[in-house]
Amino acid sequence: MILHNIGNLKITPKSLKNLPFCCLLIVFIFTGCLGGTQTTVTQTDEAVSSSETETSQALAVLQISTPKTNYAANEAIPLNLNIQNGKFDLLVPFASVATRGAFSHITVTDANGQTIEPKHLITQENPQKYVVGNDGKSVRCVQGFELKASANQELSLKDIQKYFQLQPGTYNLTLTIDLEVYRESIIEEHPEVLELRKDLARIQNDPNLQAAAKTDAVSYYQEQIKFIQERHKDVVKDIYLPVKSRRGKAPIVSNGITITVEPETNSSNLQKQDETSPENDKADTAPTKKPLEFADIINQRASEWGPPKYKTRSNPQYPKSAKEEKKEGTVVLQVIIDENGIPKDIVALTSLGFGLEAAAIEALKKSTFHPAMKNGKPISKEVEIPYAFKIEDVVSP
């Protein structure tokens, strides 16, 4: 409160005459401090600390659209989202800009302005995990994503009818994203590098090790770390955001669009009436249709759709720290296997720690898949894949 009052203080010639020199000096000192504080604010600080409207506009602009405005009853209604980032590089949770996370706050209202409640919520897990930072300490984090300045992010929801039961009528749609912004990020290193860094730290802190031997050991471990980093330099690494570095949250509201769901036509009803009319009743002469056997139904459904399958499965390496602490459990990963069989958007739904999630993710990235199939064509499919870690399964060297 004192700083705010001093910042708003107006100094006039008359007031200067009445102020003692020491008081005037204090005013100049505080004013100088305030000016220095303002010059140290980063661009991201300015974006987050401004008013809510200015913040939303500075962070990003949301634009939603549909391929057309009129849809038949029970027809799939796809929704497209374009996130136009502002002039700042932003560190945001991955869950906020993943497909289901970005679409989790859709507002649908009918022609009377009544809000339509969803039949199924659109949710996106945002699990926390401990990640080793540059100082060697474990930090509680969420998986992050870097929104580059002025970049576009394109997302699509295949069918909002899956979540909202829209009866014939006209509807208005808007979308809101509560975008959290973070100050810092950590790139999780390869599990082998983490283990080497732990060994390196133990050697450096060992008071009983002779200086020459310690120097040779440190040099060896540093070379090993560089070798592994070089070998995996082309691997896309996930970034994580320390929970304590969260700056704030700003709601960003999209444009509004209008869609119309048309009522069912009478042609189907007329056809049904014709089929049941006496003139068309040929039950005595028409051949009876043989009902499908259970095996036929299974084969038919299998030909229409099939889940993704492994080509090659890579087993995770049991982290040394987890073995030492006798940490066991099952890591569950959520992943999208695209139409080319490539795993994408991997998210850990568990938080066992001790490097278990990282080891499972690394194994999944090394695995290859046959994509899911629908009507004989490859499709992208989101699945959950478990990885069980048991100490008894570890073979001693």
Strand percentage: 25-35%
Q: How many individual helices?
A: 13
Structural class: alpha+beta
Radius of gyration (CA) equals: 30 Å
Number of domains: 4
Spatial shape: elongated
- Major sheet description: 5 strands, mixed
Query: End-to-end distance, in Å?
Result: 65 Å
CATH domain topology of the largest domain: Immunoglobulin-like
Mean pLDDT: 76
CATH class descriptor name of the largest domain: Mainly Beta
What is the CATH architecture descriptor of the largest domain?
Answer: Sandwich
**Regions with pLDDT < 50 over 5+ consecutive residues?**
1-54, 279-287
How would you sum up this structure in a few lines?
With about 400 residues, this protein is an alpha+beta fold.
Describe the structure.
- The protein has 397 residues and is an alpha+beta fold.
- The protein has four domains: 2-40; 50-186 and 237-261, Immunoglobulin-like; 191-231; 304-390, TolA/TonB C-terminal domain.
- Helices cover 32% and strands 29% of the residues.
- It has helices at residues 2-7, 13-18, 21-39, 43-49, 52-59, 94-97, 99-102, 191-204, 211-231, 267-276, 294-304, 320-324, 356-366; strands spanning 60-65, 70-71, 79-85, 90-93, 106-110, 128-132, 138-147, 152-157, 169-182, 186-187, 239-242, 246-253, 257-261, 305-306, 309-312, 329-337, 343-348, 368-370, 372-374, 377-379, 381-389.
- Strands 2, 5, 9, 12 and 13 form a five-stranded mixed β-sheet that branches. Strands 4, 6, 7, 10 and 11 form a five-stranded antiparallel β-sheet that branches. A three-stranded antiparallel β-sheet has the order 1-3-8.
- Helix 8 runs antiparallel to helix 9 (211-231).
- The chain is elongated, with a radius of gyration of 30 Å.
- It starts with a helix and ends in an 8-residue tail after the last strand.
